[in-house]
Structures are given as C-alpha cells and as structure tokens.
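Morning F.,

Quick status update on the modeling queue. The single chain you submitted on Monday has been processed. Sequence for confirmation:
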Amino acid sequence: MNRIAWLLLAFLLPLAAAAGPAAPAAHPPGAAVASAHHLATEAGIEILRQGGNAFDAAVAVSGVLSVVEPISSGLGGGGMWLLHDGKTGRDVFVDGRETAPAAATPDKFLDARGDLDPQRAQNGPWSAGIPGLPALLVHVAEKYGRLPLRQSLAPAIRIAREGFPVYARMARGYAAKRQVMDRYPGTRAVFSPNGKPIREGQVFRQPDLAATLERLAAQGFDGFYRGTTARHLVAGVNAAGGQWTLDELAGYRVREREPIHFRYHDWTITTAPLPSSGGIALAQMLQILAPYDLEAMPEAERVHMVVESMRRAFRDRTFYLGDPDFVKIPQRLLLSPDYAAGLRAGIDPDKATPSDLLSGQPTPLEDEETTHFSIIDADGNRVAATQTVNLLFGSGLIPPGTGVLLNDEMDDFALKPGTPNAFGVMGYEANAPKPGKRMLSSMTPTFMESRDKVVALGTPGGSRIITMVLLGILGYDAGLDAQQVAALPRYHHQWLPDVIDAEPGAISAQAAQALQAMGHRIDLPPDEAAGGRGSSHVWGNLQTVEWDRRANALRGGSDPRNPEGKATVLAQP
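Structure tokens below.
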C-alpha cells in the first residue's frame, strides 16, 4: 500500500469510529422465553436445547400451560398466536379461537323473562364453544416447527402423568369455583378425588389429560377432533345437558390471518386482527396519542389523555367489531390515522368526555384467567401467544375420560344485544352468535420493532388486556426494559361503565384529585379513597421478551404479580 493510501486510511478510520456505534445485530445471541409458569418456561427451553425453534418451543410452553394452569387455559379452550419468521420476515396471526356450536342460539341463554341468564352463559355445557387450541398446536407444529408434535408435547404429557404441586393461585381459584365444578362427575374425579378437594402443595396428577395429549401427539388433528377423544367430549357435553355433535368437532379449522401493522413513533407495531378486538383498539389508541409527548406531561394530564383514547376505542369496539368471516367490519376506516385525528379532536384537554352510563358496577376483574407467553430464538423467530378458557376454570365441566376442562367463551358473544357480559363489555349484531362463528376477543399478542429493539409482549386480563398492552408499549417507548414493563402499575377505562379502574400506585393521590376535578370517576375503595391509590386489587400477568439489537442482548420480563411466572434467557452455545 502506498503512502497516499495509508494517509487516506488513517483519515477515514477516526471518521468511521466517530460515526456512532456498530450497526444493529442481524440475529439474537440466543433465545428467551417468558411465561406464567416456571414449568412451561423450562419446557420451552428444553425443546430449544433439543434443536427446536421458537415455534416448537411455543407448542411445548402451550402444552405445559394447558396442564399446569387449568385455571387459565387448556386444550378445552382457544388461543391467538402471533408469529414472526426470522428468515422470511413474514408475520402471521394464527387464530385458534373457539366457535359457536350450532345449537347455541341466543334464545338458549335467556331466562323466562327474556333476560340474559349469566349462569348458563358462564357455567356448564351451554357456555362452551368448540375448542380451538389443539388444532392450533397441530397447525403450528406441522407448518412452522422443526420437531414432531410428539417431541414438543412430551413435557406436557410427562407433567400431566407425573403431576406438579398445586400452587396458591390454583387452589384459591378452585375454592372460588368449586360449587360449579362439583356439579359434574368428570370434574369431581379430577379436582376432588375420593371426595377431597385439591389443596396447596398436593401433587396434582391428570392421567386422563395425559392420555388425551398422547392421542393428540400421535394422531395430530384427528387425535382430538375425531375418534376416542371426540366421542368422549360429545358424550360428556350432551350428558350434562348441552348439544354438541361429532361433525362440529371434525369441522373445526384454524384460520391464518394477516396481522395489523401500524406505526407509533419509531416503532412498527404488529398486532392481533379480528376476531380479536385488541389490534384495532390498540391502533386507535396509539394513533390518537401519537402527537403528544406523554412523558413531558404532568401525571394527571397524561392519564387523562390516555383514558380518553381508551374510552373512544372501546366505544367503537362495542358497535362495530365481530368475526370478519360473518360480518362486514369498517376496518380501513377504524385504522385510519385520519379517523384517529378526528377522535383526537373531540378530546377536551381539561375535561373528561362523559360516557353514556350503562351500569354503576365496576369493571369485573380477570387476572387468574387467560395466560400469555413470549418467545424469541437465535434465528430471530418470535412468538407472542395468548390462550384462554375465559373465566376462572372456564365452564367448570370436564367430560369424563378426557381430562379436558372446557371453556365458557360463549359469554364473549353479545348473547343479548346491549347487555354487558362478565367483563362489563357489551355488543350488538356484529358479535351475535351464529353456528361456527368466532366470538370477539380481547387477546392482543403484539410485536414492537425499531432499528434498535425487537419486542414481543402480551397479557391476560379480559377487556383489560388491550389497555395493559397499551401501557406496556408506552413503557417500552419511554425507555423501560422488559422487567420494568412487566411490573408497570396499570389503569383502565372501557367506555362503559364510565369509570377509571386503577391498581395500587398507578395514580397518585394528587393526580386522582385532579382527574376527579376534570370530571373523571375513579374506582377507589372507601378505605383508600383519601389516599387516592386506586383499587386494592392488582391484575394481569404480562410476559415479554426483548432483543436489544445494539447491545445484541436478550432480556425477559415476567409479571411480578404472579409468583409462578418465569423468564429465562438461553445463551447461544
């Protein structure tokens, strides 16, 4: 090299160093799994170590959660999974939502006076939709995984057969639902063997569920939706007074859907499409908030603006959203930044916008039900997956011989137009039940991606799921890490009832007073009203993973509200 070339190189090298840090890493340095139970997280890590990818690990995590979290999800429920293929860059939403049985027409859920019968909508055979989670597991394993289903489901089968210790949350939930669950012989055989109810610390074994998982692992779709399992399911539902058919089970199909994509500040947000209401509501709220510097606002002003965005999104959810395979949805309009600008223009910065009052009751809580997990692997594949049986232990019904606790998702339909469901949300014709139709959901598995970071997050929480994911996104946007986001205190508004619900510490006493002066109603228990610290109850179970591409580091965040949860990072060998 001549002297001129050396001089040129000596001049350029300092410029390159001064230009900034190295470009973002192309691939994560390993894998990360965050889920609501340590046994599920460990199962995901086990499958990754066996050569599986994030999708195989997701099947393993889901399978184990179906065993160890019957309070929240299982083979008798459904799920909505958001997947990202690291090689192609493709995002896909896998819809394993339950569907309405043909016999479950709206009149079946009304009492003699024509009012909604909550007992029938929320408990027992009529409350159960046709399960979707088993078909989702098969679909993801066959289309996106590397390993056979029998390998990915092996941890779940092992834990179902050998058992696991009953934890406090599970025992507490069973005590709350026992009166319903003891109505059904199949449920009593699992949860009250020999007439003795399960208790904390007891080893809980589920041999029938292990056998059902084995049939699913060996035979795929037919192992659940046809043959022995299907016959047991139909017989058990019909013996309990419901009306299922073998053809309905065999006719269930997973749907792949295009996710919703939009921009918020420097992030590309990828999230759930219909029949989840979460993605549209999330897009509306964030596009309403986009012009504001929320971090620079005083607390009361910031909460006011966020609540007003929530109020408007939930109002649209009530009237417009349903299963897109059955009803026409004005999705393009609802997702338009111009529409969001119009909603924003109606917000008074100094005054709450009154909602039409429907009920003075506070929003019912869901924290124990539904579950979420997030995964990223060394190839950049990622999964944000939410799955549920709806309310606490679903319908409470286990058809004998299956070990499968059925969902009570029929309550998520608008069974009587304008009448709130268990979560205080209501709907109209767009979400009315029809044979094979999928009930509207709030599940909001979400990805965030910027030049520097990739994130997967989600949570249970009923109608609160959407607002918890919103607050998680705002937390990441403010520079918090995964564990800080998982621990964020939460508040919520859903149009009706017209009230802000808040966890302890979510809203300061000073801000609460300022919000009340603006016209907001805040749900404060009498013993805490003077302090203004919000509801005494905490909710949610957010699970998130992040890849810092600049530092090429992985982090996981597991909600500290749930002591069973666990986030684990697996370094690349």
